[in-house]
Amino acid sequence: MNFLGFGQSAEIDIVFDGAENRKTAEVKGEDGKIEQMLLYYDGETVSGKVNVTLKKPGSKLEHHGIKIEFIGQIELFYDRGNHHEFKCLAKALARPGDLIQNNSYPFEFPNVEKQFEVYAGSNVRLRYFLRATIVRRISDITKEVDIAVHTLCSYPDVNNPIKMEVGIEDCLHIEFEYNKSKYHLQDTIIGKIYFLLVRIKIKHMEIAIIKRESTGTGPNMFTENENITKFEIMDGAPVKGESIPIRVFLAGYNLTPTMREINKKFSVKYFLNLVLMDTEDRRYFKQQEITLWRKADIPRYHAHSQQQAAIAGHNTHPQHAPAHLVSGPPAPISATPAVPVNDSNAAGTVPSESKMGLFTRESPNQEFSQQSQDSLPTSPMTPPSMSIERGIGDGAAATSTSPVLLSTTPPPLPVAATIINATTTHETDPAAEQKTAEVEDLLESNEQAENDIEDKPLVVAPVTTDFLDDA
């Protein structure tokens, strides 16, 4: 054939990047032999080189292009003529032309989605492979290399124990319990069997792990059961109230994760089969389905850092709080009425503010308007006072939201404040009585000033309410 020009005049070799440092996995081939394949995970990049070597140095190879494909494929053994491809990525390595010397072509499939795990069963096979092709006029030159793919799962949110009471009416009642319903492939099944009623002669009891493979749909469905392992857990006749412990190590068996409706072609399920045999060789069994999943060996540092960032963001800025309760322009400054500077009881008369909740019945504007009506100012003169700030937390505003309160009387003189203190405390000091006459003259002058002010129009300072939103 080579003499006539129809044979393969070149060889193709596919080399993966980092193959010497990548893990390998054992996968059963089509002929039943175990093969070592490079292990990839979902989302990993597949890259390498395609080496084309001419069999005869100096010869010329005419081709119509060189390409490489990444293919995910399901093969049903009862329908070998049809291969179902659920993943196909192609890249062109060389344009049509002549190949006169050995050459190497790099390739890369970045972040390839591999949603299913490789599987080789009794009636179905799921595989991932790379296919390099030299397209020719009559017969193409191809090379295929399989890879192993494992799908990693997170810890299940709910993993309830399995507990069930089964038996034969008035003859045998047993209660079996397993610690979990979902196990990873390196896990240990722990449970117990408790005999509630025993009226038949039981010879021994055994437990088995069964893999059930279902392929096809409707009338073309085929089911294959395979006993993964079986061992005896009790020998001899039990009595009422006896408890038999169960401990099964899964790491020593060739198991795969549970697969449900993979591309609507096949399913793989696992069952725990409890079998009791009496002295007349009659068998009593009960099957219970369990879920197997593959545990990730790589720590999830990325997920942990995201969780910490979310917690930090929640502490600094409550996401459920409205924007106008956690930020905004500065609010008006609260002012207090003038009080005597030496009166110790006057400080307690200043009304204290209460924190605003995240949700209130009335809008901030309504609350402000009601408070402003209760404290209508009668004088344009407003003494400065210290503002009261709110703390950030529980939805309280970062700035004070109290309205401006205007004083109704002019600020008293320091001497007058001292005499007022003396008169309110009913002191009989002669020096104080002498000063009272002097103060009365000052008060008369102040009253005259008030009468002049009342004739003038009232001017009230505007209040800014831009930072308040309507409810």
TrEMBL record:
Family statement: Belongs to the VPS26 family.
GO biological process, one term: intracellular protein transport
Span list, region Disordered: 304-410
Pfam families hit by this protein: Vps26
PANTHER family: VACUOLAR PROTEIN SORTING 26 RELATED
Record's protein name: Vacuolar protein sorting-associated protein 26
Annotated keywords: Protein transport, Transport
Keyword Transport in annotation: yes
Sequence ranges of Low complexity compositional bias: 375-387, 396-408
Chain intervals with Polar residues compositional bias: 362-374
Gene transcribed to yield this protein: LOC119638834
